[in-house]
Amino acid sequence: METTVDEISKKLILKIDNTFDKMVHAITRFEEGQYNTVPFEGSWTAGQVVQHIIMSVAELPDKKTQAPQRSYDEKIDSIEKLFLDFGIKMESPEFIIPEYQTYDKTGQIMELKNIQHRHVETIRDTDLSALCVDFEFPTFGYLTRFEWFSFFVFHTQRHTVQVNNIYQYLSKQGL
């Protein structure tokens, strides 16, 4: 039995909602003082991690699209495998490295919820199989809207684990 476009959209919306809700929950656990505390040398603060997510998943690069010459979900497994491999440390591209500053936890939560809402609307209203040709994803090339949204899910899941680890570390240190 073939999956319908509507079923694919509904499943993706559930993943987006679940992923963003888990990130928001992770953030709400922090006391204000903890949120912008560097847990250990070489680490970002929780606020910086969240800012990195906001910067990297806020918009789809889909001003220009075209019909793909491949399956709309061809690169999903490779993207998931890479971003959910917690054994590797990744380096962020310069353009999505957050500044070291004091971040407003409440403001960032509101921004994440706005992004989540926009993504859900886009999933409902657009062709997920369209190939986005505004930006070529490093090592993977051009992605479909479906693949971009899936990357947003995997990337946010990866960093939710990081935010939870920062919280646990700071809590154990009594900070």
From TrEMBL:
The protein's name: DinB family protein
Organism annotation: Fulvivirga kasyanovii
Entry superkingdom: Bacteria
InterPro entries found in the cross-reference section: DinB-like, DinB/YfiT-like
Pfam families on file: DinB_2
All copies of domain DinB-like, residue ranges: 17-162
Matching Gene3D superfamilies: dinb family like domain
